[in-house]
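Predict structure. Chain length: 191.
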Amino acid sequence: MTVDIDSKLTLKDYLDYDTELLSIGLNPSLVSVQLGFYFANPRNRFWRALDSSQLLSEPLQVNAHVHERLAAEYRLGFTDVVKRATSSGGQLRAADFKRDAPMLRAKLERYQPAWLWFHGKVAFQQLLFYAYGLRGQWHWGWNEVPQITSKVFVSPNPSSANAIFSLQDLVTYYNELAMTMRASNERQNKA
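Prediction complete.
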């Protein structure tokens, strides 16, 4: 059974057949839904870390149209494990994951992005449990998941509530992702 989420209460997916890297958060914040783009809370460090990383060739102007530019220029898409917006991830319930994680799995299998980029272990673990029935000890950085054909990278959640990781820590993870993607693309181009 498919359950529709009111589009005014969530963010749309930026995912298509040409998406190379898919950014996957836990769920959209109320601020993001209100402003119309992912990671919109000014305290969230995602955009600052992204601008400081090697994933982009130049800084972005962040607004409600930033996702279209990232999709067109970098083949970078965005979605969440759960589509229901909340003021914090702690407000999510098992029913949210049971409803939305299988739908995300279907999208991943349909569009098959080359790389999945999870923001936080919670997002990654909840998708794996509720969509694939997997439990495990997952780690920061690269993770092998035989049930997923895409390459999987997990970086810390950029929320300011996750202060154990600094902005520079986030940039370091984003750079690791960028360097590995670049090296993989260079190997493919030589083959």
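Summary: The first helix runs from residue 30 to 35.
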